[in-house]
Amino acid sequence: MDIELTINGETTTVEAGSEQDLATVLRQHGHIDVKCGCDGGTCGASKVFVDGDVRMACGMAATEAEGSDVQTVASLGTQDDLHPVQQAFVDNFAVQCGFCIPGMIVQATALLDENPDPTEREVREALDDNVCRCTGYQKPVEAVLDAAGRMREEGVAADGGRPIGGEPADDTAMGKPADAGGCCGGGCDE
Amino acid sequence: MSDSDNASDLDDGPDGVRAEEEATGGTVEGAAREPDRKAPDEREAITTDEEKDDARQIVTGEARYTADYRDRFPDLAHGKVVRSDIAHGHVESVDTSAAEAMDGVYAVITPFDDVVPDTLYSSSGQSYPEPSPWDLTVLREHVRFVGDPVAAVAAEDPDTADRAARKVEVEYRERDAVFDPEAALDEDAPQLFETDDVENKQSGADYARNLESHFEGELGDVDAAFDAAEAGEGVHVVETEWETPYQSHCVPEPHATIAYTDEDDRHVFITATQVPFHTRRQISHLFDVPIRDVRVTKPRIGAGFGSKQEMAIEPITFALHLAAGRPVKLEMTRQEEFTALRFRHPMRMRMKTAVTEEGDIEAMDLYTLSNSGAYGTHGMTVANNVGTKPLPIYPRVPNVRFSGDVVHTNLPMGAAMRGYGAPQGHFAVESHMDEVARRLGLDPIEFRLRNAVREGDLDRSVAILKDDDRFERTIRSCGIRECVERGKEAIGYDDLDQPDEDHRHRGVGMALIAQGSGVAGKELGAAQVKMNEDGSFHLQVGGVDTGTGADTMFSQIAAEVLGCPPEDVVVVAADTDLTPFDYGAYASSTTYISGRAVKNAAEDAKERLLEWGATLLDEPPEVLDTGDGAVYSEETGNRVSLEEIGYEATYGDDEREHILGDGNHSTDESPPPYGAQFVDVTVNEETGEYDLNKLVFAADCGVAINPALVEGQIEGGEHMSLEYATSGGLSFDGEGNPEVQGFRQYGMPRTTDHPPMETILVETHEPTGPFGAKSIAELPTNGVPPALSNAIRDAVGVRLTELPFTDEDLRAALDARDGDD
Ligand code: FES
Ligand code: FES
Q1: A Gene Ontology MF term for this entry (chain A) (predicted)?
Q2: How many domains does chain B divide into?
Q3: Is the residue at B202 inside a domain?
């Protein structure tokens, strides 16, 4: 069946079988930044924003995403203009093989939007269902704390420089820009 | 213009005199133009935290792994494997008709099809001829564990392939199975292999007893030493036993392969492999096609940890491709990773030592019984490393014996996994040494340092299983004492606060660690440097970056030689059509072997740079060097940029040359990196629960080319080691059915399960390594089980000997202790 949804700011119609999960459908439509590392719902690699909430895309029927706003890690920044969370992952050497990283960055971004000044414990709890086999989680956790510091300094969340997920009108949604927000550099409609 | 070297020319006499010269600043042959040892302030591109070259692609989600290439193939078929659901038996018949009748099914293959060769092979990605037995076929008529591949399907989409696979009906003639390695050795046990089912070059095979290999080696006279100890005064004999479980690699990206045949009739594999060149050779062997007609490429890879040092799924993918006549992609599920792919071998070990009152070790005797599972890939070689990695920590012990049996059972196959036998071996040896010290009333750390390796030692135990002394090695770099000192300080060894509650006790344990740097005498790395006219370079290297950052490290080594920034070195790696040969990413060989080949290639190109610089500057090449993007004169300070040289060499009026360099590296050397793992634990004596307060790992990997990447290796290695100690393991029911099917049932530590980790790098200079580097990737996988066993012993006086340590185990040990009181 055909499903209409918005993916990284672009409204589009995709074909999906009634039993197909969202991760599979996104990947079939070229969104290879959505990774699949398990048979569903246990590794965190497929995390995306659906209407501002973090979801494991593999654990959700594609049909359930009808009409929703889906954002993947690719919406956050570009290689030349990284989102502060992405930049912190690069600068802190938090990526090794990288397979877990899209899901981890989506989750970390959501955390910092909700809690701009988390403790290390809070970061660890937020990432607890993102499995990573390469890093021992040490540098990813350091990266998230570093990103939090940078974002507070730069006031990124406050000025809406990088909205993620959510309708602009809904300011309770995680990751949404504040009203004054400018263009997100690829992740929004502006 | 070839620069090839073989570092065996560095072999020392037993006195190690040369080694000391080298360690104090000598130069390495083959690097004669400039000393290999650089003081920190002379380094430009090395020992810096150079950004990982693919980090930006990864964080933006643009990095492409094998399955992400699906969009390049509009007619791609999707594969699915049909696996045995019995532990032991023979396939009587396979009914594929229902599957074949389905719309969208392109091919169903069985062991009886022509496109499926019945040639024997080994899936181990090892050098030729593989030491592992050739005991596999692409699909299996004789199934030997629950999960053995019997048939496979290719269909238009994954769902159709799944449904078709479920419609394949297999009938078996079931046979008795055996699951315990000791029981499997019994003459009456079900036999997994007839002798002519296998080509086995390993020592001591006896398939009538399911014995894949038996091996033993001895230095001195161990029995005489124990006899003397038993008879005499003042020498204590201590014997201990240890047991380890299966461990899953939990490889982040499940195995994936795309196979197709291009318009030139060449067979191409895009595949998640650590060993492209071995895979090319093995595909050629198995399908009887010339090596030159096979191309194996490795895109980004979601790590390997040894699981992808296996040609595990490429043959099935290729057979499906031949049958379907279109490109085929086969991806494993997580369930297949946990049940049917590859694992760390479970083992039972026995360690016995004779030690004097003062703490001198007179004799060591280590035995291992390894459960190889259903097939023999890496069976003997992993078991060999149980001894040959940790025993060399104590190279001056005069009497040493090491022996082992590698046994088949009807369970999944063990294979290469990061550490490669060393994690099992270190658990036995380093827990044993701690126990000895405590029983003798010696300080466990002092006792070990008294006997531990020093620079200049001749290590014979590393070659204990070899027929000749070619692989005995002189230790040229060893920072193990500084690792211990700094680790002690970081963990607070000398002033540990005890908790206030009486039933909670805190303890610290330590394990000494060693690994190797490549397989001695069985490695080859090669690289080529090509200059571009703008002063940048392409580096073509066979070495395989499995996600560790090896490509970045290569660019740093090349840049350090060429005098340019690492970003000016474009790395093209691990493609059997485009890059020079390499044995692949295993045995901690990439920095030491492939990195040294890169250095040699860069030095070869540098000679040409200096010649061109000499012409352009009108000065003799002997006074010139590279640095800061130029060739400059040490005498006059004049300089000519690499870009000027590039344009002049390419487009000049008088003479033209493409500046190229090539380098090889092969060697009999495998210098050990060293480490010390510390664990700080608090045990609740009432419940048996324990909390890890902190992990400290201090590592001597020689010169760390990229310290941040090295730290990442250590933290990730410790993570696996933590799992091995506390939570990993597979279980099976009485029929051999796997009970662990996914992450939900498997105890992989999550973020919140990790105690704080502190990492310390102790720099030494390994004269045979590139700029003094040794390996790092496997070293940190070895330490937590022994260090935690030792820490618990320190805290509450009980010894845990079976991994993983559960609260129940600890509670039972505490009860036994109190019962004995
Ligand atoms: S693939 Fe979605 S959580 Fe693992
Ligand atoms: S970086 Fe490899 S799984 Fe996280």
Answers
A1: 2 iron, 2 sulfur cluster binding
A2: 1
A3: no
